[in-house]
Amino acid sequence: MSQNQDMSNPGGEQPLEDRVNNRSMRPNSSAFKDFMAASWAPVEDSGETRLASADYALERRSKLSARFPGERLVLPAGPLKVRSNDTDYRFRAHSGFAHMTGLGVDHEADAVLVMEPVEAGAGENGSGHVSTLYFRPMAGRDSSEFYSNSRSGEFWIGPRPTLESLSLMTGLPTAHMDLSLEDALTRNAGLVALGGLTVRLVRDVDQTVDAMIDTSRYNTGVDLEASDASDGALSEALSELRLVKDAWEIEQMRAAVAATANGFDDVVRSIPRAMNHKRGERVIEGAFFSRAREEGNDLGYDTIAASGNHATILHWIRNDGQVNAGELVLVDAGVEADSLYTADITRTVPVDGTFTEVQARIYQAVLDAADAAFDIVKPGITFRTIHETALAVLADRLHGWGLLPVSVEEAISPAGQQHRRWMPHGTSHHLGLDVHDCAQARQELYQDGIVEAGMVFTIEPGLYFKAEDLAVPAEYRGIGVRIEDDILVTADGAERLSADVPRTIAQVEAWMASTGA
Ligand code: GLY
Ligand code: MN
Ligand code: MN
User: Fold this and answer.
1) Three-state SS at 505
2) H helical segments located in 111-246
3) Contact 358, 451 (CB under 8 A)
4) Mean pLDDT, to the nearest integer, of 339-363?
5) What is the spatial distance between Cα 94 and Cα 99, in angstroms, rounded to a whole number?
6) Ligand 1 centre and the CA of 437: distance in Å?
7) Quick check: 190 and 196 in contact, CB under 8 A?
8) 391 CB under 6 A from ligand 1?
9) Ligand 1: does its nearest atom lie under 6 Å from the Cβ of 460?
10) 84 CA to middle of ligand 3, Å?
Protein backbone atom coordinates (compact mmCIF):
# COMPACT_ATOMS: atom_id res chain seq x y z
CA MET A 1 0.00 0.00 0.00
CA SER A 2 1.26 3.51 -0.69
CA GLN A 3 1.82 5.74 2.27
CA ASN A 4 -0.57 8.51 1.23
CA GLN A 5 -3.59 6.38 0.50
CA ASP A 6 -6.48 6.43 2.94
CA MET A 7 -7.98 2.95 2.70
CA SER A 8 -10.94 4.03 4.83
CA ASN A 9 -11.93 6.10 1.83
CA PRO A 10 -11.09 3.92 -1.15
CA GLY A 11 -13.22 6.09 -3.45
CA GLY A 12 -10.60 8.66 -2.61
CA GLU A 13 -10.57 12.39 -2.23
CA GLN A 14 -7.09 12.62 -3.66
CA PRO A 15 -7.34 13.60 -7.33
CA LEU A 16 -6.37 10.77 -9.68
CA GLU A 17 -3.69 12.86 -11.37
CA ASP A 18 -1.88 13.31 -8.05
CA ARG A 19 -1.82 9.60 -7.30
CA VAL A 20 1.03 9.04 -9.70
CA ASN A 21 3.24 10.40 -6.89
CA ASN A 22 1.95 7.94 -4.33
CA ARG A 23 4.79 5.55 -4.89
CA SER A 24 7.41 8.28 -4.67
CA MET A 25 9.90 7.91 -1.81
CA ARG A 26 11.73 11.15 -2.60
CA PRO A 27 12.47 13.22 0.51
CA ASN A 28 10.84 16.58 0.70
CA SER A 29 12.98 18.31 3.30
CA SER A 30 14.74 21.54 2.48
CA ALA A 31 17.90 20.01 3.94
CA PHE A 32 17.73 17.34 1.23
CA LYS A 33 16.97 19.86 -1.51
CA ASP A 34 19.82 22.15 -0.47
CA PHE A 35 22.28 19.29 -0.23
CA MET A 36 21.22 17.91 -3.66
CA ALA A 37 21.73 21.29 -5.28
CA ALA A 38 25.30 21.71 -4.07
CA SER A 39 28.78 20.34 -4.72
CA TRP A 40 28.47 19.07 -8.31
CA ALA A 41 31.32 19.50 -10.72
CA PRO A 42 30.56 21.92 -13.55
CA VAL A 43 28.90 20.36 -16.62
CA GLU A 44 31.75 19.21 -18.82
CA ASP A 45 31.99 20.38 -22.38
CA SER A 46 30.45 17.36 -24.11
CA GLY A 47 32.83 17.80 -27.03
CA GLU A 48 29.95 17.83 -29.50
CA THR A 49 30.94 18.57 -33.06
CA ARG A 50 28.92 19.49 -36.12
CA LEU A 51 26.98 16.48 -37.39
CA ALA A 52 27.95 15.14 -40.81
CA SER A 53 24.29 15.61 -41.76
CA ALA A 54 24.20 19.33 -40.90
CA ASP A 55 25.16 20.69 -44.33
CA TYR A 56 22.74 18.32 -46.06
CA ALA A 57 19.95 19.39 -43.73
CA LEU A 58 20.70 23.02 -44.60
CA GLU A 59 20.30 22.23 -48.32
CA ARG A 60 17.03 20.40 -47.62
CA ARG A 61 15.67 23.36 -45.66
CA SER A 62 16.55 25.65 -48.57
CA LYS A 63 14.45 23.48 -50.88
CA LEU A 64 11.56 23.52 -48.43
CA SER A 65 11.91 27.29 -48.03
CA ALA A 66 11.58 27.77 -51.79
CA ARG A 67 8.19 26.02 -51.74
CA PHE A 68 6.70 28.28 -49.09
CA PRO A 69 8.07 31.82 -49.42
CA GLY A 70 6.81 34.30 -46.86
CA GLU A 71 5.27 31.64 -44.58
CA ARG A 72 6.20 30.33 -41.16
CA LEU A 73 6.86 26.57 -41.17
CA VAL A 74 6.55 24.54 -37.99
CA LEU A 75 8.01 21.04 -37.72
CA PRO A 76 7.68 19.30 -34.33
CA ALA A 77 9.87 16.35 -33.33
CA GLY A 78 7.00 14.96 -31.27
CA PRO A 79 6.73 14.09 -27.59
CA LEU A 80 7.62 10.97 -25.67
CA LYS A 81 4.84 8.41 -26.10
CA VAL A 82 3.46 6.46 -23.17
CA ARG A 83 3.71 2.70 -23.42
CA SER A 84 2.14 1.93 -20.08
CA ASN A 85 1.30 4.25 -17.19
CA ASP A 86 4.51 6.25 -16.58
CA THR A 87 6.72 4.14 -18.85
CA ASP A 88 7.51 5.61 -22.25
CA TYR A 89 8.58 4.11 -25.53
CA ARG A 90 12.13 4.92 -26.50
CA PHE A 91 11.94 8.30 -28.24
CA ARG A 92 12.03 8.49 -32.01
CA ALA A 93 11.68 11.86 -33.72
CA HIS A 94 9.20 12.46 -36.54
CA SER A 95 10.87 11.74 -39.86
CA GLY A 96 10.16 15.18 -41.34
CA PHE A 97 11.89 16.78 -38.35
CA ALA A 98 14.82 14.36 -38.60
CA HIS A 99 15.23 15.13 -42.30
CA MET A 100 15.21 18.90 -41.87
CA THR A 101 17.48 18.99 -38.80
CA GLY A 102 19.82 16.08 -39.57
CA LEU A 103 19.17 14.78 -36.06
CA GLY A 104 18.87 11.03 -35.69
CA VAL A 105 19.29 9.44 -32.28
CA ASP A 106 20.70 12.82 -31.25
CA HIS A 107 17.06 13.71 -30.81
CA GLU A 108 15.23 15.87 -28.39
CA ALA A 109 11.66 14.98 -27.48
CA ASP A 110 9.30 17.98 -27.69
CA ALA A 111 11.72 19.97 -29.86
CA VAL A 112 10.24 22.11 -32.63
CA LEU A 113 11.97 23.46 -35.74
CA VAL A 114 10.54 26.82 -36.74
CA MET A 115 11.42 28.28 -40.14
CA GLU A 116 10.67 31.98 -40.02
CA PRO A 117 10.22 33.85 -43.33
CA VAL A 118 12.52 36.74 -44.10
CA GLU A 119 13.15 38.74 -47.25
CA ALA A 120 13.98 36.53 -50.25
CA GLY A 121 17.67 35.65 -50.21
CA ALA A 122 18.28 37.10 -46.75
CA GLY A 123 17.83 33.78 -44.91
CA GLU A 124 20.08 30.82 -44.22
CA ASN A 125 21.97 29.52 -47.25
CA GLY A 126 20.60 32.44 -49.29
CA SER A 127 17.03 31.23 -48.79
CA GLY A 128 13.94 33.11 -47.63
CA HIS A 129 13.84 31.63 -44.13
CA VAL A 130 15.85 31.57 -40.94
CA SER A 131 15.45 28.45 -38.83
CA THR A 132 15.55 28.06 -35.06
CA LEU A 133 15.45 24.86 -33.06
CA TYR A 134 13.36 25.20 -29.91
CA PHE A 135 13.92 22.61 -27.22
CA ARG A 136 14.25 22.10 -23.49
CA PRO A 137 17.97 22.07 -22.74
CA MET A 138 19.53 20.10 -19.93
CA ALA A 139 18.65 21.61 -16.57
CA GLY A 140 21.43 22.75 -14.24
CA ARG A 141 22.53 20.42 -11.45
CA ASP A 142 21.35 23.01 -8.97
CA SER A 143 17.76 22.57 -10.21
CA SER A 144 15.22 20.10 -8.85
CA GLU A 145 14.66 18.85 -12.44
CA PHE A 146 18.20 17.41 -12.28
CA TYR A 147 17.17 14.72 -9.78
CA SER A 148 13.36 14.78 -9.71
CA ASN A 149 12.21 14.64 -13.33
CA SER A 150 12.35 11.02 -14.45
CA ARG A 151 11.60 11.94 -18.08
CA SER A 152 14.20 14.65 -18.55
CA GLY A 153 16.45 14.95 -15.48
CA GLU A 154 20.12 14.14 -15.91
CA PHE A 155 20.12 11.97 -12.76
CA TRP A 156 17.49 9.71 -14.41
CA ILE A 157 18.24 9.65 -18.11
CA GLY A 158 21.79 10.95 -18.39
CA PRO A 159 23.10 14.17 -19.89
CA ARG A 160 21.18 15.94 -22.64
CA PRO A 161 22.34 18.74 -24.91
CA THR A 162 22.69 22.30 -23.83
CA LEU A 163 21.51 25.12 -26.11
CA GLU A 164 25.11 25.57 -27.23
CA SER A 165 25.88 21.92 -27.92
CA LEU A 166 22.75 21.28 -30.01
CA SER A 167 23.46 24.44 -31.96
CA LEU A 168 27.00 23.25 -32.62
CA MET A 169 25.74 19.84 -33.78
CA THR A 170 23.04 21.05 -36.14
CA GLY A 171 24.39 24.44 -37.21
CA LEU A 172 21.03 25.87 -36.15
CA PRO A 173 20.35 28.68 -33.73
CA THR A 174 18.66 27.18 -30.65
CA ALA A 175 16.28 28.61 -28.07
CA HIS A 176 14.68 27.41 -24.85
CA MET A 177 11.18 26.25 -25.71
CA ASP A 178 9.69 27.01 -22.31
CA LEU A 179 10.69 30.65 -22.63
CA SER A 180 9.89 31.39 -26.24
CA LEU A 181 8.12 28.67 -28.26
CA GLU A 182 4.55 29.90 -28.05
CA ASP A 183 5.59 33.41 -29.06
CA ALA A 184 7.67 32.01 -31.94
CA LEU A 185 4.68 30.03 -33.23
CA THR A 186 2.01 32.66 -32.90
CA ARG A 187 3.70 36.07 -33.21
CA ASN A 188 2.08 38.12 -36.05
CA ALA A 189 0.15 35.06 -37.19
CA GLY A 190 -3.23 35.65 -38.75
CA LEU A 191 -5.19 36.45 -41.85
CA VAL A 192 -2.99 37.58 -44.69
CA ALA A 193 -5.71 40.03 -45.79
CA LEU A 194 -5.29 41.75 -42.44
CA GLY A 195 -1.51 41.82 -42.61
CA GLY A 196 -1.04 38.50 -40.76
CA LEU A 197 1.44 35.78 -41.45
CA THR A 198 0.46 32.31 -42.72
CA VAL A 199 1.65 29.50 -40.47
CA ARG A 200 1.94 25.95 -41.75
CA LEU A 201 2.29 23.08 -39.33
CA VAL A 202 3.12 19.40 -39.58
CA ARG A 203 -0.01 18.33 -37.71
CA ASP A 204 -0.68 15.33 -35.49
CA VAL A 205 2.92 15.05 -34.36
CA ASP A 206 2.67 17.06 -31.13
CA GLN A 207 -0.76 17.85 -29.68
CA THR A 208 0.63 20.70 -27.58
CA VAL A 209 1.96 22.45 -30.66
CA ASP A 210 -1.27 21.75 -32.58
CA ALA A 211 -3.25 23.32 -29.73
CA MET A 212 -1.06 26.44 -29.57
CA ILE A 213 -1.44 27.04 -33.28
CA ASP A 214 -5.15 26.17 -33.45
CA THR A 215 -5.87 28.55 -30.57
CA SER A 216 -3.96 31.30 -32.31
CA ARG A 217 -5.84 30.62 -35.55
CA TYR A 218 -9.15 30.66 -33.77
CA ASN A 219 -8.31 33.91 -32.02
CA THR A 220 -7.22 35.62 -35.24
CA GLY A 221 -10.15 34.43 -37.37
CA VAL A 222 -8.16 32.01 -39.53
CA ASP A 223 -10.38 29.26 -40.96
CA LEU A 224 -9.44 25.99 -39.26
CA GLU A 225 -10.63 23.76 -42.09
CA ALA A 226 -8.73 25.70 -44.74
CA SER A 227 -5.67 25.53 -42.47
CA ASP A 228 -5.93 21.75 -42.43
CA ALA A 229 -5.44 21.73 -46.19
CA SER A 230 -2.55 24.19 -46.10
CA ASP A 231 -0.91 22.17 -43.33
CA GLY A 232 -1.33 19.09 -45.49
CA ALA A 233 0.63 20.77 -48.27
CA LEU A 234 3.61 21.06 -45.90
CA SER A 235 3.52 17.33 -45.10
CA GLU A 236 3.20 16.61 -48.80
CA ALA A 237 6.26 18.76 -49.57
CA LEU A 238 8.29 17.06 -46.81
CA SER A 239 7.43 13.67 -48.30
CA GLU A 240 8.22 14.73 -51.86
CA LEU A 241 11.56 16.25 -50.89
CA ARG A 242 12.60 12.80 -49.66
CA LEU A 243 11.87 11.00 -52.95
CA VAL A 244 15.45 11.48 -54.16
CA LYS A 245 18.10 10.79 -51.55
CA ASP A 246 21.24 12.91 -51.20
CA ALA A 247 24.75 11.41 -50.91
CA TRP A 248 24.65 11.32 -47.12
CA GLU A 249 21.29 9.54 -47.10
CA ILE A 250 22.58 6.93 -49.55
CA GLU A 251 25.50 6.30 -47.20
CA GLN A 252 23.01 5.79 -44.35
CA MET A 253 20.97 3.37 -46.46
CA ARG A 254 24.10 1.36 -47.20
CA ALA A 255 24.89 1.22 -43.47
CA ALA A 256 21.34 0.13 -42.62
CA VAL A 257 21.43 -2.58 -45.30
CA ALA A 258 24.87 -3.82 -44.14
CA ALA A 259 23.67 -4.15 -40.54
CA THR A 260 20.52 -5.89 -41.77
CA ALA A 261 22.61 -8.33 -43.81
CA ASN A 262 24.49 -9.19 -40.61
CA GLY A 263 21.14 -9.62 -38.89
CA PHE A 264 20.05 -12.11 -41.55
CA ASP A 265 23.21 -14.14 -40.94
CA ASP A 266 22.19 -14.20 -37.27
CA VAL A 267 18.69 -15.28 -38.28
CA VAL A 268 19.99 -18.24 -40.25
CA ARG A 269 22.35 -19.19 -37.40
CA SER A 270 19.39 -19.12 -34.99
CA ILE A 271 17.30 -21.62 -36.93
CA PRO A 272 18.62 -24.82 -35.27
CA ARG A 273 17.71 -23.38 -31.85
CA ALA A 274 14.39 -22.11 -33.23
CA MET A 275 13.49 -25.64 -34.36
CA ASN A 276 13.87 -26.87 -30.78
CA HIS A 277 11.79 -24.13 -29.20
CA LYS A 278 8.04 -24.06 -28.78
CA ARG A 279 7.99 -20.47 -30.03
CA GLY A 280 10.77 -20.79 -32.56
CA GLU A 281 9.62 -17.74 -34.50
CA ARG A 282 10.44 -15.66 -31.41
CA VAL A 283 13.96 -17.10 -31.37
CA ILE A 284 14.43 -15.80 -34.91
CA GLU A 285 12.87 -12.43 -34.08
CA GLY A 286 15.14 -12.10 -31.06
CA ALA A 287 18.28 -12.95 -33.02
CA PHE A 288 17.56 -10.15 -35.47
CA PHE A 289 16.62 -7.68 -32.75
CA SER A 290 19.94 -8.16 -30.97
CA ARG A 291 21.76 -7.17 -34.12
CA ALA A 292 19.46 -4.17 -34.64
CA ARG A 293 20.30 -2.82 -31.20
CA GLU A 294 23.99 -3.69 -31.42
CA GLU A 295 24.60 -2.05 -34.80
CA GLY A 296 21.75 0.39 -35.16
CA ASN A 297 19.19 2.37 -33.23
CA ASP A 298 16.35 -0.13 -33.42
CA LEU A 299 14.22 -2.11 -35.81
CA GLY A 300 12.79 -0.03 -38.64
CA TYR A 301 9.51 -1.91 -38.13
CA ASP A 302 8.37 -5.01 -36.28
CA THR A 303 10.07 -8.12 -37.61
CA ILE A 304 7.95 -10.68 -39.41
CA ALA A 305 9.21 -14.18 -38.54
CA ALA A 306 6.71 -16.50 -40.15
CA SER A 307 7.12 -20.23 -40.59
CA GLY A 308 4.90 -22.55 -42.61
CA ASN A 309 1.39 -21.22 -43.13
CA HIS A 310 2.21 -18.08 -41.10
CA ALA A 311 4.31 -16.97 -44.09
CA THR A 312 1.04 -16.48 -45.97
CA ILE A 313 -0.13 -13.89 -43.42
CA LEU A 314 1.30 -10.66 -44.78
CA HIS A 315 1.89 -8.85 -41.50
CA TRP A 316 2.51 -11.80 -39.20
CA ILE A 317 4.27 -10.10 -36.27
CA ARG A 318 2.85 -12.25 -33.47
CA ASN A 319 5.76 -14.59 -34.18
CA ASP A 320 4.71 -17.16 -31.62
CA GLY A 321 4.69 -20.21 -33.88
CA GLN A 322 6.89 -23.24 -34.17
CA VAL A 323 9.59 -23.58 -36.81
CA ASN A 324 9.41 -27.07 -38.24
CA ALA A 325 11.57 -29.08 -40.63
CA GLY A 326 10.01 -29.22 -44.07
CA GLU A 327 8.58 -25.68 -43.86
CA LEU A 328 9.75 -22.42 -45.37
CA VAL A 329 10.35 -19.59 -42.93
CA LEU A 330 9.85 -16.04 -44.19
CA VAL A 331 11.72 -13.29 -42.36
CA ASP A 332 11.03 -9.63 -43.17
CA ALA A 333 13.27 -7.37 -41.11
CA GLY A 334 15.25 -4.13 -41.20
CA VAL A 335 17.80 -2.40 -39.01
CA GLU A 336 17.19 1.29 -38.44
CA ALA A 337 20.58 3.01 -38.32
CA ASP A 338 21.43 5.63 -35.71
CA SER A 339 20.56 8.19 -38.37
CA LEU A 340 17.01 6.65 -38.39
CA TYR A 341 17.28 5.39 -41.99
CA THR A 342 16.03 1.83 -42.31
CA ALA A 343 16.53 -1.17 -44.54
CA ASP A 344 13.62 -3.49 -45.43
CA ILE A 345 14.67 -6.96 -46.55
CA THR A 346 12.82 -10.28 -46.82
CA ARG A 347 14.30 -13.71 -47.27
CA THR A 348 12.44 -17.02 -47.32
CA VAL A 349 14.52 -20.06 -46.46
CA PRO A 350 13.86 -23.80 -46.02
CA VAL A 351 13.99 -24.60 -42.32
CA ASP A 352 15.92 -27.84 -42.82
CA GLY A 353 18.25 -26.38 -45.43
CA THR A 354 16.79 -27.77 -48.68
CA PHE A 355 13.83 -26.65 -50.79
CA THR A 356 11.30 -29.30 -51.76
CA GLU A 357 10.41 -29.46 -55.44
CA VAL A 358 7.19 -27.47 -55.05
CA GLN A 359 8.81 -24.93 -52.69
CA ALA A 360 11.61 -24.42 -55.22
CA ARG A 361 9.08 -23.99 -58.04
CA ILE A 362 7.28 -21.23 -56.17
CA TYR A 363 10.52 -19.64 -54.95
CA GLN A 364 11.99 -19.52 -58.46
CA ALA A 365 8.85 -17.85 -59.82
CA VAL A 366 9.11 -15.11 -57.18
CA LEU A 367 12.84 -14.72 -57.82
CA ASP A 368 12.25 -14.42 -61.57
CA ALA A 369 9.59 -11.77 -60.95
CA ALA A 370 12.01 -9.84 -58.73
CA ASP A 371 14.81 -10.08 -61.28
CA ALA A 372 12.58 -9.03 -64.18
CA ALA A 373 11.43 -5.99 -62.23
CA PHE A 374 15.00 -5.08 -61.22
CA ASP A 375 16.21 -5.40 -64.81
CA ILE A 376 13.95 -2.62 -66.07
CA VAL A 377 14.88 -0.08 -63.39
CA LYS A 378 16.64 2.99 -64.69
CA PRO A 379 15.96 6.72 -64.69
CA GLY A 380 13.02 7.62 -66.90
CA ILE A 381 10.75 4.61 -66.39
CA THR A 382 7.45 4.97 -64.54
CA PHE A 383 7.50 3.63 -60.98
CA ARG A 384 4.36 1.57 -61.56
CA THR A 385 5.93 -0.40 -64.42
CA ILE A 386 8.15 -2.13 -61.84
CA HIS A 387 5.03 -3.59 -60.26
CA GLU A 388 3.47 -4.45 -63.60
CA THR A 389 6.63 -6.23 -64.73
CA ALA A 390 6.84 -8.38 -61.60
CA LEU A 391 3.15 -9.21 -61.73
CA ALA A 392 3.30 -10.22 -65.40
CA VAL A 393 5.91 -12.87 -64.55
CA LEU A 394 3.83 -14.18 -61.65
CA ALA A 395 0.64 -14.27 -63.74
CA ASP A 396 2.47 -16.23 -66.40
CA ARG A 397 3.76 -18.81 -63.87
CA LEU A 398 0.40 -19.14 -62.16
CA HIS A 399 -1.16 -19.77 -65.54
CA GLY A 400 1.50 -22.33 -66.38
CA TRP A 401 0.72 -24.20 -63.18
CA GLY A 402 -2.96 -24.24 -64.14
CA LEU A 403 -4.04 -22.04 -61.24
CA LEU A 404 -5.52 -19.09 -63.14
CA PRO A 405 -9.18 -19.43 -64.12
CA VAL A 406 -8.56 -17.12 -67.13
CA SER A 407 -5.83 -16.37 -69.66
CA VAL A 408 -2.77 -14.33 -68.63
CA GLU A 409 -4.03 -11.44 -70.81
CA GLU A 410 -7.38 -11.44 -69.07
CA ALA A 411 -5.80 -11.69 -65.66
CA ILE A 412 -3.45 -8.76 -66.15
CA SER A 413 -6.18 -6.55 -67.65
CA PRO A 414 -7.73 -4.08 -65.19
CA ALA A 415 -11.03 -5.98 -65.36
CA GLY A 416 -9.33 -9.25 -64.35
CA GLN A 417 -6.56 -9.31 -61.75
CA GLN A 418 -7.33 -12.87 -60.60
CA HIS A 419 -3.60 -13.48 -60.06
CA ARG A 420 -3.61 -10.89 -57.28
CA ARG A 421 -5.37 -13.45 -55.08
CA TRP A 422 -1.88 -14.78 -54.39
CA MET A 423 -0.06 -11.44 -54.19
CA PRO A 424 -2.42 -8.73 -53.01
CA HIS A 425 0.29 -6.23 -51.97
CA GLY A 426 2.36 -3.80 -54.03
CA THR A 427 5.78 -4.69 -55.42
CA SER A 428 7.64 -1.53 -54.43
CA HIS A 429 7.63 1.33 -51.98
CA HIS A 430 10.08 4.12 -51.32
CA LEU A 431 12.43 3.50 -48.42
CA GLY A 432 14.36 5.86 -46.16
CA LEU A 433 13.61 7.46 -42.82
CA ASP A 434 10.26 5.66 -42.86
CA VAL A 435 10.01 2.10 -44.02
CA HIS A 436 7.15 3.24 -46.24
CA ASP A 437 8.88 6.50 -47.08
CA CYS A 438 7.43 9.54 -48.83
CA ALA A 439 3.93 8.34 -48.00
CA GLN A 440 2.31 11.77 -48.41
CA ALA A 441 3.76 12.37 -51.88
CA ARG A 442 1.22 12.96 -54.64
CA GLN A 443 0.19 10.01 -56.82
CA GLU A 444 1.74 11.64 -59.88
CA LEU A 445 5.11 11.65 -58.12
CA TYR A 446 4.72 8.22 -56.52
CA GLN A 447 2.98 5.39 -58.41
CA ASP A 448 2.72 7.50 -61.56
CA GLY A 449 6.06 9.18 -60.93
CA ILE A 450 9.17 8.89 -63.06
CA VAL A 451 12.08 7.01 -61.57
CA GLU A 452 15.14 9.20 -60.93
CA ALA A 453 18.74 8.54 -59.93
CA GLY A 454 19.07 8.66 -56.14
CA MET A 455 15.70 7.07 -55.44
CA VAL A 456 15.75 4.12 -53.04
CA PHE A 457 12.89 1.64 -53.01
CA THR A 458 12.09 -2.00 -52.46
CA ILE A 459 11.30 -4.71 -54.98
CA GLU A 460 9.35 -7.37 -53.08
CA PRO A 461 7.20 -9.78 -55.05
CA GLY A 462 5.69 -12.74 -53.28
CA LEU A 463 3.26 -15.63 -53.61
CA TYR A 464 1.08 -16.71 -50.71
CA PHE A 465 -0.90 -19.94 -50.84
CA LYS A 466 -2.87 -20.23 -47.64
CA ALA A 467 -3.51 -23.61 -46.01
CA GLU A 468 -7.22 -22.95 -46.44
CA ASP A 469 -6.99 -21.91 -50.12
CA LEU A 470 -9.18 -24.37 -52.01
CA ALA A 471 -8.39 -22.71 -55.35
CA VAL A 472 -4.96 -24.39 -55.46
CA PRO A 473 -3.92 -28.06 -55.28
CA ALA A 474 -3.01 -29.34 -51.83
CA GLU A 475 0.74 -29.38 -52.55
CA TYR A 476 0.77 -25.55 -52.79
CA ARG A 477 -1.11 -24.93 -49.58
CA GLY A 478 0.67 -23.48 -46.57
CA ILE A 479 3.56 -22.06 -48.59
CA GLY A 480 4.39 -18.35 -48.59
CA VAL A 481 7.41 -16.83 -50.34
CA ARG A 482 8.55 -13.23 -50.52
CA ILE A 483 11.93 -11.95 -51.69
CA GLU A 484 12.51 -8.30 -50.88
CA ASP A 485 15.52 -6.25 -51.90
CA ASP A 486 16.47 -2.61 -51.45
CA ILE A 487 17.28 -0.85 -54.71
CA LEU A 488 19.23 2.35 -55.43
CA VAL A 489 18.62 3.97 -58.80
CA THR A 490 21.90 4.98 -60.46
CA ALA A 491 22.62 7.29 -63.41
CA ASP A 492 21.96 4.54 -65.96
CA GLY A 493 20.41 1.64 -64.08
CA ALA A 494 20.08 0.34 -60.58
CA GLU A 495 22.10 -1.20 -57.77
CA ARG A 496 20.69 -3.91 -55.53
CA LEU A 497 21.93 -2.66 -52.14
CA SER A 498 20.97 -5.95 -50.49
CA ALA A 499 22.70 -8.14 -53.09
CA ASP A 500 24.99 -9.66 -50.47
CA VAL A 501 22.11 -11.37 -48.68
CA PRO A 502 21.78 -14.76 -50.43
CA ARG A 503 18.88 -14.85 -52.93
CA THR A 504 19.10 -17.70 -55.41
CA ILE A 505 18.10 -21.23 -54.47
CA ALA A 506 21.72 -22.39 -54.62
CA GLN A 507 22.91 -19.42 -52.56
CA VAL A 508 20.22 -19.91 -49.93
CA GLU A 509 20.90 -23.64 -49.58
CA ALA A 510 24.64 -22.96 -49.27
CA TRP A 511 23.92 -20.27 -46.68
CA MET A 512 21.86 -22.70 -44.61
CA ALA A 513 24.53 -25.40 -44.93
CA SER A 514 27.27 -23.02 -43.82
CA THR A 515 25.61 -22.54 -40.45
CA GLY A 516 25.00 -26.22 -39.78
CA ALA A 517 21.20 -25.98 -39.99
N1 GLY B 1 8.18 -4.78 -44.02
C2 GLY B 1 7.15 -4.02 -44.56
C3 GLY B 1 7.20 -4.05 -46.01
O4 GLY B 1 7.86 -4.88 -46.58
O5 GLY B 1 6.65 -3.22 -46.67
MN1 MN C 1 8.80 -3.48 -47.93
MN1 MN D 1 9.54 -5.80 -45.73
Assistant:
1) helix
2) 145-148, 154-157, 163-170, 177-186, 207-219, 224-240
3) no
4) 98
5) 9
6) 11
7) yes
8) no
9) yes
10) 28
